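Listing S7. Sequence submitted for prediction.
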Amino acid sequence: MTTTSYTTTTAPAATNAAPSRRARITGLVLSGLAVVFFLFDSLTHIANVEQVRTAMEDLGFDPSLNRVFGVVLLICLAFYVVPLTSILGAVLLTGYLGGAVGTNLLTEQPILSTTLAPIYFGILVWGGLYLRDSRVRAIMPFVRG
């Protein structure tokens, strides 16, 4: 009878040390900037502001979907601001922002100012979370110790 032994290799353990006070404050500021922007954006969609209706129509969306976009964004944002579900919220916001990038590409918007803007906000979302949450550092370790 032959026995086979399997060995597994694991990546070096990422440090789960709490972020420094400075990193946490910087992360909170970055996350706060993203939250303020997304909150404003979601509320203008829910309020169905004229400028939002016009912009949605220019992008090829039915303006009656404004409230749906606003509520979806608000739900994603709610997950992001609750510490227990912040990683899920960041993933959901990333999906939402990916749709914005796709829309901007399809409608041939200017690259740096418009098409890539959602990516800039994605960097704020994940950068802020990375700096303030050791769980994110554990799954995305940029620096090996």
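Caption to Listing S7: primary sequence and predicted structure tokens for the chain studied. The two ends are 43 Å apart (CA to CA). The chain has a mean pLDDT of 89.
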